[in-house]
Amino acid sequence: MSTNSALTQLIEDKAKSESVHTCLPSYDRNQLKHGIVHLSVGNFHRSHLAYYMDVLANEHGQTDWGIIGVGVRSFDKPMSTVLKEQNGLYTLVTKGTDEKDVNVRIIGSLIRYIFAPDEPENALAVLVHPDTKIVSMTITESGYDLDMNNPDVQHDLKTSDKPKTAFGFIVHGLDARRRANEKPFTVMSCDNVQQNGEVTKKCILQFAKGLNNPELVEYIERNVTFPNAMVDRITPATTDADREYVRKHCGIADGWPVVTEPFIQWVIEDTFCNGRPPLELLSSSTYNVLLTEHVEAYECMKMRLLNASHTGMCYIGYLMGYNYIHEIMLDKQIEIYIEDLMNHEVTPTLPPVPGIDLEKYKRTLVERFSNPHIKDTALRVCMDGASKFPKFLVPTIVEQLKRGNNPHFCALAVGAWIRYLGGVDEHDKPITLQDALAVDLKLGELATKTKPSAKAILSVSQVFANLAENQQFADAVERVVELLYTVGSKETLKQWVNEAPKRK
User: Fold this and answer.
1) Distance between CA 95 and CA 37 in Å, rounded?
2) pLDDT tier at 121 (50, 70, 90 boundaries)?
3) Radius of gyration of the chain (CA)
4) What pTM, to 2 d.p., does this model score?
């Protein structure tokens, strides 16, 4: 299907589409090379990297950085079906805090989609193709908990032509390029993992060593680059209400639109082994792309402020009966809690962040969390807590305890998660745990068996390292959990806010 035919099919009411000033691809999509292959296409990728590449093609005439999306997991199938039907086109809607602040854009940078479980050979072939300069991925925080005994990983160690995992595709793709004397591709993580490039490199080398192929390991160590990056744009899952909004208000019949916020940021190391897009063209405040040699401070800022605050509010907010993040943030007690967490527990642990006004950044975060128009669900943010706490909150707790301080509100965040792990809410309705690592570690069963005690969960070193050994912190968390079970979430929050240390 041609782009014009796909657009005609997508835009069912041209007058409505024009009335909201929908930005359409002005470039010839047939001229786009697939400079990037992206593994695990989700809404964040489509609001972030794919959007950036669309801007480069549309506004700057760059044709070398089209994207081929590869769905690696079985649950990627529904999106795969829709994107193939739409020839890779989809609608990106940004909604600000003002209901009139709406921008509509049809993205054309995703030029092909491959559902790998059905077409593993085709997915591997695009990785090997010389046009592919970068392989990017969004596999979520838990995706980097590489288990070499996992059946799919074991399959990929034995079968090179039909991988099942993201790391299997990458390593076998690199090996094929090595054997063909092709330059390697850059491996680029776009996930919320501190030092995500280094973490990815560690996983890739661990997998490669499992193949008992020293030549491949040396090739990767010598030639492949893994840039660290900080990525940011709050992007909820697509709902039927989003589909209806796009159809009713924009005249677009899109089966999988993306609704996101106006804010966007990407800070990335300029270490690409086989060329890169001209990202310096996106350095203005509209796009917030920064090429740098040192990403660590930006990563630290974003993960400990934005991601930790998200993690801190979602469990207590869910227990309080809220469905959406903006509802949680508009609760006055939550606002006091999150601002105190950011200002007094997190900020003192942060390194200097070049070019960033931290006070303004934190105010912007509160505004972003409070945006009522993107409908970010508490349950989405509650996912994968066992993978999030070690990266987002534990570093702050460790640093504050090292300084002899009591991280009062961090204890509340941890306690609320442990209560959430108990499996039922305050109305005895079941909570479905969407957390692969927590399931593997049997944390739900542990929390249920030991409630209201928190010591057993705090002793799980994969999540909390040795925090259980700090009696003051362990006692604080235990008290939070006990309060949550005895007086409920609202009263616990009120009491915890009232007992907060007096700050200077």
Assistant:
1) 28
2) very high
3) 23
4) 0.93
